[in-house]
Amino acid sequence: MIGDVVGEPGLKALENKLPDIIKDNAVDFTVVNGENSADGFGMTEAAFKRIMASGADAVTSGNHVWEKREFWSILETDERILRPANYPAGCAGKGWLCVEKAGLNWLVINLQGRELMTPIDCPFRGFDNIVKDIINIFPFIIVDFHAESSREKEAMGHYIDGRAALVAGTHTHVQTADERILPKETAYITDLGMTGVTDSIIGMDPEICMDRTCKQVLYRMEPAADRQINGKSSAEVQGVIAEINAETGKALSIKRI
Q1: Hey, which residues are catalytic here?
Q2: pTM reported for the whole predicted model
Q3: 228 pLDDT more than 90
Q4: 131-154 CB burial, b ≥16 within 10 A, e <16
Q5: In this structure, are residues 225 and 8 in contact, taking their beta carbons and an 8 Å threshold?
Q6: Which residues pair with 223 in a beta bridge?
Q7: Are residues 159 and 124 in contact, defined by beta-carbon separation less than 8 angstroms?
């Protein structure tokens, strides 16, 4: 699972590095959060296609997926892009998908938190409603929980523990160091981090972010420029690799990228 792709630098980093990550680690299935891939806010069809071409099997999102209204039609027509499942009925797109790959059935679920965010439908009940009839058909369940609150993310991890192979938080763009296997053998991390320029503030231009914070004026943030360091890109890919038991659907290990 790969953390939020931020702007053009994030897309380029993904294109340059994800294929090798997949090859070098014999990865069977890859999920990428792409909600910030189009100039830092939302997605476009072109950005989505670039993420898929880099090696993603499914693309998740979050609250910014609605930024580019022209992308709503892609949410409706392409089954590989998800928006959080717990948005109210009638919103474009869907929040979960089933994929068969490497001889296994995968269920990818995208949910969004409510603490310090828009109070949409309950993500906990949302998960229950999705898996209640199909959990035995799809033992390989991967959850992207797009949320602000670390407490809410950890609560979701423990709530789902034993019912999913991997639960990973997104949204804050800061990778956490708490990757672990929960008691009932679900792999967990509070936040995957982000894919973009690390010499930045959450992938965005530091000067603009500091002005927003210090002046309390809502300047529009822009993705940070890729500042070359010793001739190398300062953009990187962040996320996790989880190993899952093919017979049980339980996690064996998880490590940060």
Answers
A1: 64
A2: 0.94
A3: no
A4: beeeeeebbbbbbbbbbbbeebbb
A5: no
A6: 204
A7: yes
